[in-house]
Amino acid sequence: MLSNEKKSPATAAVAQSTVDRVLTRYAHDPSYMVQILREVQEACGWISPEAIDRLQAVLGVPRTKIEGVAGFYSFFHTRPVGRYRLLFSDNITDRMQGSAALLERLCSALWIEPGKVSEDGLVSVDRTSCTGLCDQGPGLLVNLRAIGRLTVERIDRIVELVRDEVPLADWPAEFFAIEGNIRRTDVLLATPFAPGDALRAAQARVPSDGLAAANLRSWREGLPTGLGGPAAMLDEIKRANLRGRGGAGFMTGLKWEACRNAPLKAGQQRFVVCNADEGEPGTFKDRVLLSRRADLVFEGMTVAAYAIGARRGFLYLRGEYRYLLDDLNAVLERRRRDGLLGSDIAGMPGADFEIEIHVGAGAYVCGEESALIESLEGKRGTPRNRPPFPVTNGYLDQPTVVNNVETFAAAALIAVHGGDWYAAIGTRHSAGTKLLSVAGDCARPGIYEYPFGVSIRQVLADCGAADAQAVQVSGPSGVCLGAAEFDRCIGFEDIPTAGAFTVFDHSRDMFEVARNYVHFFQHESCGFCTPCRVGTSLLKNLMDKLHQGCGSPYDFAEIEKLNQLLQTMSHCGLGHTACNPVLDTIARFRPAYERRMRQQEFAPAFDLDRALAAARQMTGRDDAGAHFLDQEA
Amino acid sequence: MSQTFTLDGLSIPFTDGETIIQAATRAGVFIPHLCYHPEFKPHGSCKLCTVKVNGRHTASCTLRAAAGMVVENNTEELNAERRALTQMLFVEGNHFCPSCEKSGHCQLQATAYHLGMMSPHYDHFFPDRPVDASHPEVLLDFNRCILCSLCVRASRDVDGKNVFALSGRGIRTQLIVNAKSGRLADTDFTVDDKAAQICPVGVILKKRRGFAVPIGERPYDRAPLSETALAETAAAGEEGV
Question: In chain A, what residues touch B122 (CB-CB under 8 Å)?
C-alpha cells in the first residue's frame, strides 16, 4: 500500500490529464464508455484506479458501471500489463500450425509464464481467441498489432526486440505485412466500383410499379417528399433476395423495411450499424473486405441510410482489427471530402449521413446484434431480451439496422446494378455470392468468392485440400462435415455459413478440434444466463476429462444432456450452438471419442497426482517422492 | 381482462403488457424463479422460469402474454431442466446449507426442494470468493451469489445508489460494490436500503441477527416455496394498491 500511495500523486496526474483529453474528444458522453476506456488504456497502458476515479468524477457515472464495463472485455486491463503485450491466437488452425510450441519457446526465452506479467513490467504473454489470421498463421497480436506467419526465427527475433525494448514502430515492417490472399473472385471482389457509384444510382432510381406507393418518404422525416429514390432502393434490395451474410440469413430488404417503417418518437432517429465484429474462429473475410473494399462497405451503409432514412451509422470493428482503424478512418475522411458523407451527400439536399467507427475490446458475444448494440452504448456486451428487436428498439432504443460487412458490400453493388442482376446469381433461395475464409489443411488458404450453390468438394479441390477428413463450415457455431457430405452445397437451403471454411486432413484428431472449440465457447460466454455461464464450463471440464483418459460412457451421456440444456435454455445463440462441435464430431468421428473411453465404469475427473502439480511447482520438486503413485496401477 | 392464454390446460386471463409469469402468479400458478421479483424490471438471466410457449422454450418473466398462447409449465421435462439449472447454481458457488444463516429462508435451497433436487450432480467448482465483513452492519458472503442482480436493481432503481454491479465475464462474472477499495464499508450502503432486504440467497446478511429465527421455524420450513411465493406476491400487490 505504501509504495502505491507514494507514487499515486504523479500517476493520478497523468491519469487525470489523459482522461480529460479523451473525455473532451467524446464530448463527456458516457455512451462512448467502451471507446473512452480503450483510448485511456492506449495512452496509459491500463485502466488504473486513478483513471476510474477521474472518469467517475467527471462523468458522474457510478464506479460500479465503469468497472463493470472494464471487467467484461478481454482487452481491458484493470491491473498493469506488460509494456509489450503479446497475445497468441489460440484458434485450432494456429495450434495446427504449431503455435503451442512457439508460445512455449517465447515464454522460456523471456522467463515468463503465460498469463503473467514479467517482474520488470516489460512484457506479458497470453493466449486469445482467433485473431483472424488463419490463412497466414500462426498469429499473434503485439499491443493489438497483428503479426502472422510465426516461425521459430520470428519468435527468436521478437524475443530480442522485446529484450532490447525496441519501439514497435521500429520492428521489421514485414512482420506486420498482412496479405489479402484473395484466391477466387466473383462479383463482390471483382466488379469495378468507384466511390459514389451506388449513391448516384440509388438517387437516380424511380419507384417501380407496385411498390411505388408503399413509401415515398424522403431521406429524412420532415423533408419535402418527391424523391423517388429511397423506396425504389428498398425495392431493389428486396428484388435482389439479399439475405444477411452473418449466417442467419434474414432477408435484408425486410429488415430495412421494418426499420424504415418503425415509428419514431420525438427526438428519435434511425441508425445503420455495420457488424465487423468478426469473431467466429476461422473467419477473416471482413478483414479482407475492410482492407481491400472499404468504400464498397461504407457506401453500402450509406445506401442503407438512404433507403431507411438514417443520419448516423456505426462500424463496430472487432478489437483484434484495431490495426485497420487508421486506414478506415482515412477512407471515411476522403469520403467526407468527396461529398459522399456528411451533409447533403452527393448534392442531395437534406441527405445527411455520418459514420463513426467503434472498436470492440475482445468479446466474441458482441457479434450478436443486441450485444453489439449494448457495447455501442458503452455497456457490457450482454445480449438483450428479444423481442423487441433492433429494427424497432436498437441503439439508444431507436430503430436500428444491423448488417454484416459483406451484406453492406453486396447492397452497394445491388444499388448500382439492380436487384434482378443480383438475384440471377447463386441459387433460388440463396441469391448472390459468398466469401469463404478457407484455412487449415490445404495448399492455398485465403479468400474464395463463389456464387451460392458451390459444393464443399469444389472448394476443397480449388484450395488444394487433397486429404480432407472434415470441414468445419461457419466456425464452431456452424457444422462439421465428413467426407460423405462433401457433395453438399453452400447456401441457406443446405449449408448456411457466415464464411469460415476450415479443413482438417486425416492426420488431425477431431476430438481435439472439438475440445479447442469448447474451450473457446467457455472463454467467450458472457455469463449472463445460468445455462451458458455454467454449462460451457461443465462441458469444458467433461472434454478435458476425456482428454485426460478418465472418460466413460457416463460422460458421454452427460455431454448429451448438457447439449440439450444449452440448446433449449440459453439466452442467445452462443449457448445454443456451444455444443455443436461436440455433437457433430461425435456423430461423424466417433472413434476419436471411443479412444478416450478408457473406463467402462464411471471414473472421477479428480486425479490426486495432477492435483499435486501446484505443490510440486511451489517446492521446485519433481522427484518420485513428489508424485502420488497408484499402487494398483 | 377478456384475453386469455392456456397454462398447463388452465385458462389464464391477462391484461395488455403483462408477462406470462405475472399473469400466472395472479391466477395462483407458481412458476419457479430466482432472478425475477414482482417489484422489479425482469432480468431474464437465471432461466429457472423457462416455460414452453407453443412448443418453444422461453423465459416467462420477459415474454409478454398473448391471446391464445399455449404454455407448458409444470411438466416433467421442464422441471428436469430447471433442476439441472439449480444444480449448476449450486456447484458454481460455495453453498453449504447446514451452516448457512439463510437456510430455511433461501430461495435457492427452497427451489431445490421444490424441484426435488437430491444432489448437486455436477462436480463442484469451489471458486475462491473472499467474504467482505467490512461494513459495520452487513456481511457480504459472495460464496453464495447466484448473480441474479436483484441487489443491483434494488440499489439502482429504489435506493438510487448503485452500490452493486456485475463485473467480469462468463464463469468469472462477479458482484462488485461501488468503492475504489472494493469494500462495502466504503460505500453509502445502509442496512435500511432496499438492496439489503432483497437477496434471495445468503450473500447480503445483517450482522448480529444470526439464528434470530430458529431452524425449523423459518418461512420455507413452515410452507413450501410455491405457497410462500404466491402469498408474498399477493401481499405486495395489495400494498401497491
Answer: 538
Do the bridges between strand B50-53 and strand B56-59 make them parallel or antiparallel, or are there none, so unpaired? antiparallel
| Residues B8-23: tens digit of each pLDDT | 999 999 999 999 999 9
Count CA atoms within 13 Å of residue A530 on its CB side: 33
Interface test with A, best of B169, B173, B178, B183 (most A CBs within 10 A): B169
Q: Strand runs (DSSP E) across A374-456, as ranges? A: 400-404, 433-440, 446-451
What pLDDT score was predicted for residue A9? Answer: 59
B201: buried, middle or exposed (CB in 10 Å: 19+, 13-18, 0-12)?
A: buried
Asked if A70's CB is within 8 angstroms of B173's CB, the reply is no
Q: How many angstroms away from the CA of B172 is the closest CA of chain A?
A: 8
**Spans in chain A with pLDDT lower than 50:** 1-7, 208-227, 631-633
The chain A residues in contact with chain B (CB within 8 A) are 49, 52-53, 62-65, 67-68, 70-74, 363, 380, 385, 522-531, 533-538, 541, 561, 565, 568-571, 605-606
Burial code (b: 16+ CB inside 10 Å, e: under 16) for A468-505 equals: bbbbbbbbbbbbbbbeebbebbbbbebbbbbbbbbbbe
CA distances from A228 to A176, A200, A219, A310, B72 (A): 47, 13, 10, 16, 49
Residues of B with CB under 8 A from a CB of A: 42, 44-48, 50, 57, 59, 62, 81, 84-85, 88-89, 91-92, 122-123, 125, 146-147, 162-174, 176-180
Q: Do A343 and A223 meet the contact criterion of CB atoms below 8 Å apart? A: no
This prediction has a pTM of 0.94
Interface predicted TM-score (ipTM) of this complex, two decimals: 0.96
Nearest CA in chain A to B171: A533
pLDDT score of A608 = 87
With CB atoms and an 8 Å threshold, state whether A533 touches B171.
yes
Q: Which long-range contacts (CB under 8 A, 24 or more apart) does A16-23 make?
A: A16/A50, A16/A54, A18/A43, A18/A44, A18/A51, A19/A51, A19/A54, A19/A55, A19/A58, A20/A54, A20/A58, A23/A55, A23/A58, A23/A59
| Neighbour-count burial for A116-129, b at 16+ CB within 10 Å, e otherwise | ebbeeeebbbbbbb
